[in-house]
Write a structure and sequence with these properties.
This protein folds into two domains: 40 residues, no CATH class; 384 residues, no CATH class. Helix content is 78%, strand content 0%. It has 22 helices and no strands.
Length: 427
């Protein structure tokens, strides 16, 4: 039995034993390492090297910024703003759900956080309006996936650290795919709503809309500060994350006055715990990837993939199939560390832009958040609406198909991804 077989077999066995993904990656790597004869002192050295990167400091800061703005009540204000502008239209609440998810995604950078924050308000409201538990929960779960596509995205930060791609550039590249995903979900929602008897909400006056916009403006300013600061050359993505965290604290404590010193302490602890979970996954997943590279496993897999799919379009099809399956079982961070070192050399050899590859991989993994058995967004939505995983899995199918259409578009029409970076001249 060769090292690659031992590594992946032990990893799969641990996963089926319900061992957490981070531990499964770390333990399987150590088992294979012991058998291969590599010195154990390489383990702590590689772990430290993998997480001791300035780029990855953006993760805890973005998490803190998202948690602060969530606690400050920005989700309520965003929902109210969107509702005042489009709530009166046919299927208005469904449109509100998607639009608000796009806005909140630009603040939290996390799919589950988007579903949890918005779902508590929107799912009960949609059910009460007649949308049904299944559709309401499925729509919020799917639109929550936009959280890792629209910047700032923690998944983009991780990919940038792995592939050496400019984080600022991939942030801007994710905007159009994220908006396309939102548009596709709105179209599907409107088609489904035609079969329902839903009473439109009263149309808000322009004074009410202006008041709602003013109330939400402090939250809307956060992504503007982040992206404007990065592309204006005022700070790096990591510095932008720190600025966003400070801005969020000031808004929450001084403007909205929803956060006191006790709440701030709780937020710091909560963000530290969440960041530690992500960084633990980064550490073990990167060690797993390092071992694969050291033992030549990644090169062998890349060569095999290149020989099987010498055609770029065939490679992209295989890439999407592999990542869609992987997304059903493992989280986005782990999947990137496992598959990016394998896919990146093949994509480069076939002339496929690493920037586009990163966005395509991220959209795949966003779809993975709504596919059982490990679709985290589905479970969060189920927790809010109290429906079964089987029921929401059935209701999510139309939205899943819409997401797959968007995935195919950005995969085979890479200009969609590169359009904004190119016209803005971002290197």
């Amino acid at each position: 039995m060769n090292i690659a077989t031992i590594l992946f077999l032990s990893f799969i066995i641990l996963l089926f034993l319900n061992v957490p993904i981070a531990l499964s990656l770390g333990v399987s790597s150590i088992i294979a390492m012991l058998i291969s004869g590599l010195p154990l002192d390489m383990f702590p050295m590689q772990i430290y090297a993998s997480i001791g990167k300035f780029t990855l400091l953006a993760i805890p800061f973005f998490m803190l910024a998202g948690n602060v703005m969530e606690r400050a009540g920005i989700s309520d204000k965003l929902i109210n703003m969107a509702n005042k502008f489009v709530g009166h239209k046919n299927g208005g609440l469904a449109i509100v759900a998607v639009i608000t998810s796009c806005f909140f995604a630009a603040i939290s950078g996390s799919g589950p956080a988007t579903v949890a924050s918005l779902g508590v308000i929107l799912i009960p409201a949609m059910i009460k309006a007649g949308y049904g538990e299944g559709m309401s929960s499925a729509l919020l779960a799917t639109s929550g996936g936009i959280g890792i596509i629209i910047p700032p995205s923690i998944t983009f930060v991780v990919y940038g650290a792995i592939a050496g791609v400019s984080i600022g550039k991939i942030f801007i590249a994710g905007i159009i795919p994220g908006l396309l995903m939102g548009a596709a979900l709105i179209i599907v929602s409107l088609l489904l709503v035609k079969k329902m008897d839903i009473e439109p909400q009263p149309k808000a006056s322009w004074s009410e809309r202006w008041a709602a916009l003013k109330d939400a403006i402090w939250g809307l300013m956060m992504p503007i500060i982040i992206l404007g600061g990065i592309y204006g050359g005022y700070f790096t993505p990591t510095e932008a994350a720190a600025v966003a965290a400070v801005y969020g604290i000031l808004v929450g404590m001084i403007v909205y006055r929803k956060i006191g010193f006790k709440e701030l302490y709780d937020l710091l602890v909560e963000s530290a715990i969440s960041s530690a979970v992500v960084m633990f996954i980064v550490a073990t997943a990167s060690f797993f990837a390092w071992f694969c590279t050291t033992e030549g496993i990644s090169d062998m897999a890349s060569d095999l993939l290149l020989s099987v799919s010498g055609n770029k379009y065939a490679f992209l099809l295989i890439l999407n199939i592999i990542l869609l399956i992987a997304g059903c079982f493992i989280d986005a961070t782990s999947a990137l560390y496992i598959f990016a070192p394998i896919m990146l050399p093949v994509a480069t050899a076939l002339g496929y832009d690493p920037l586009v590859l990163g966005v395509v991989m991220t959209v795949n993994l966003a779809i993975g958040q709504i596919t059982p058995p490990v679709g985290v967004n589905l479970y969060v939505a189920c927790g809010v609406s109290k429906i079964s995983i089987g029921r929401i899995s059935k209701a999510v199918i139309p939205f899943l198909l819409a997401a797959l259409v968007v995935l195919l578009l950005i995969t085979y029409l890479p200009g969609i991804v590169t359009f904004l970076p190119d016209i803005m001249g971002i290197k």
